[in-house]
Amino acid sequence: MPLQNYVREQTERTLTLQQQLRQAFDPFGLIETTLKAQQAWLTHPEALQNVLGIYANDAIRWSRFTAGRWLGEEDSDTFPPNPEDTRFADAIWRDSPFWDGIKEWYLMNTRWLQDTLYATPGMCPQEQSRTAFWLRQWLNAVAPTNFLLTNPVAMANALATGGDSLTRGLQNFARDALRGDISMTDLDAFKVGENLATTPGAVVYRGRLLEVLHYEATTPTVHAVPLVIVSPWINKYYILDLNEKKSLIKFLVDQGFSVFVTSWKNPNGEHRELTFDDYLQDGVSQIIDVARSISGSDTVNLVGYCIGGTLVSTYLAWANRRMPGKVPVNSATLLTTLTDFERPGDIEVFIDEEGLAFIEKQMERKGYLDGKEMASSFRMLRANSLIWNYWVDNYLMGNTPMAFDVLYWNMDTTRMPEAMHRFYLRELYWHNKLVQADALTVAGEKIDLGCISQPLYMVSTEEDHIAPWLQTWKLIDRVAAPVTFTLSTSGHILGVINPPAPNSKRSYWQGVPGRGTDPLAWQAAQEKVAGSWWPNWVEWLRPQSGAQVKPKDSNRSHPKQGAAPGTYVLE
Questions:
Q1: Looking at the predicted structure, is the pLDDT value of residue 93 above 90?
Q2: PANTHER family recorded for this chain (predicted)?
Q3: Which DSSP string do the residues of 42-86 spell out, in sequence order?
Q4: Using CA atoms, how far apart are residues 493 and 407, in angstroms rounded to an integer?
Q5: Where are the alpha helices (DSSP H) in 145-197?
Q6: Which of 30, 123, 135, 306 is catalytic?
Q7: Is 306 an annotated catalytic residue?
Q8: DSSP at 191
Q9: CB 267 within 8 A of CB 419
């Protein structure tokens, strides 16, 4: 027995040490997966010989191409870049045989490595996706455009400016190093409350978790049933109120709606114990109570955006279970909302046991997950456009990023309290319990999305890599409610912040699909409608928003406590 206990203890210590080493050097399992891929190739020598033969043929083609270019042949792009890849857009990458050869060498190796990865014998789709993601990160990082001596455009600019561009680039790098992030926009060009989040409104409630902002309609009368918007706490609410032309909030108040919006507290280490239950009870339930009290309406029309929509979906299931027949919600609108996390898009590369343990260890030290860390993860999903594009422009070219309100908002990050975020990642993303009837308990009630009977208006976006529309679609098969589904062009942000405009390039598909409808077949059968979906949504809301009444700004229970945008958004 003593020997068995000793062996068991040593085994446990060894396993613990292995886990600590993985967390320190390979938290997302890249090395382990890479070694597995190498072993797979070594055990399949014929397949390995085949892919090495392909590489040898590609190298010969590149050599012939390069030699031909030096002898005066026209550029034929033996290994053409992706049409959306703008890194080699400058004419010098086509006109110069030397730089054209470097470009083609990089693209040849990039294509071969990625093709070979997906051809790895015995590698499952999840391992392929994870390894391909990290391979892309490395390939994007070593692109010749990212280094001064292999970027002819940056070198020419340095000569033309007498070295001033390099001096400015070093200054930009030093500034960003102090901030801990690569600037995507001119951060000095915006100030919340001055040229962002300027729609007139008031703080009518302030609690430990949120401020409630009330935006009264600009019309003489308003719909009796107020509109309650649950914004994502993963970012700040003012994406819905960027400026007068882009503001969804202003659009709604101009249409005669009384609008209440959550402005979430930006938590720190003192708030580490805040739970998902708190966000439901002290968040959604609280803002609904405030809106009902001020408006005098028994019900509200509820809206949730991104993770706010996930919370709204959970609330609806919770409320239908707790107070059947008395749920204070007429209808719900879900904007780019995931409820089924089986395939949550590219972000799934971070979601496994090792990745979650790494994130949880970070949260344990501070009591929260820093928004910059989360933003970096999302930026890695589109590294060329969201990281290396700014690396080249800011530091190699020495340019100041242009002022762009959406990018300013994107960099104005928030923090995630430890207990809530651990629950969110583990129970929703990893175990996918939200779509399993009664598998999840929130605020004392078992959650079943099948209990949701309120009419739903769902908006998803065609190019969304955070909440892929084929995943958001799956809610249609879960709920008992009728669903009006709208698929907008563009992505997670610009497909939602999509105001009506005379020359709008966006459009949408819409219909009322039944359970079991194939999403791609549905899309193909719908007529594409030009313009913004906002007016259509308003027409859907009006029949469920009651008669016209005189507007009410506040009441004795919830007096005005200051002007919007309030104080929490500035934290």
A1: yes
A2: POLY(3-HYDROXYALKANOATE) POLYMERASE SUBUNIT PHAC, POLY-3-HYDROXYBUTYRATE SYNTHASE
A3: HT-HHHHHHHHHHHHHHHHHHHHHHHHHHTTPPP--SSPPPTT--
A4: 11
A5: 152-160, 164-179
A6: 306
A7: yes
A8: -
A9: no
* Structural contact between residues 424 and 276, judged by C-beta atoms closer than 8 angstroms: yes
Q: How far is CA 57 from CA 52, 54, 113, 570, in A?
A: 9, 5, 14, 58
Q: Which residues pair with 335 in a beta bridge?
A: 305, 459
Give the count of alpha carbons within 13 A of 498, CB side only. 28
What is the Cα–Cα distance from 231 to 348, expressed in whole angstroms? 23
**pLDDT tens digit sequence for 253-292:** 999 999 999 999 999 999 999 999 999 999 999 999 999 9
Answer yes or no: is pLDDT of 9 > 70: no
- Report the phi/psi class of residue 446: left, alpha or beta, with left for phi > 0 and alpha for psi in -120 to 50: beta
Alpha-carbon span 290 to 328, nearest angstrom: 12
258, burial (CB in 10 Å: exposed 0-12, middle 13-18, buried 19+): buried
150 Cβ neighbours under 8 A, 6+ residues apart: 102, 144
8 Å CB contact between 312 and 304: yes
Rounded CA-CA distance 109/106 in Å is: 5
- Written as six digits, the tokens of 277 are 């239950």
- Token pair for residue 64? 């012939």
**Token pair recorded at residue 138:** 């490395």
Q: Of the candidates 417, 427, 435, which has an alpha carbon nearest to the alpha carbon of residue 313?
A: 435
d(CA 314, CA 318): 6
pTM of the model as a whole: 0.89
**Run of H or E residues at 24:** helix 2-25
Strand, helix or coil for residue 406: helix
Give the residue carrying structure tokens 């051809």: 119
Spatial separation of the C-alpha atoms in residues 203 and 554, rounded to whole Å: 9
Q: Among all chains, which residue has been given the structure tokens 């409808």? A: 517
CB 233 within 8 A of CB 308: yes
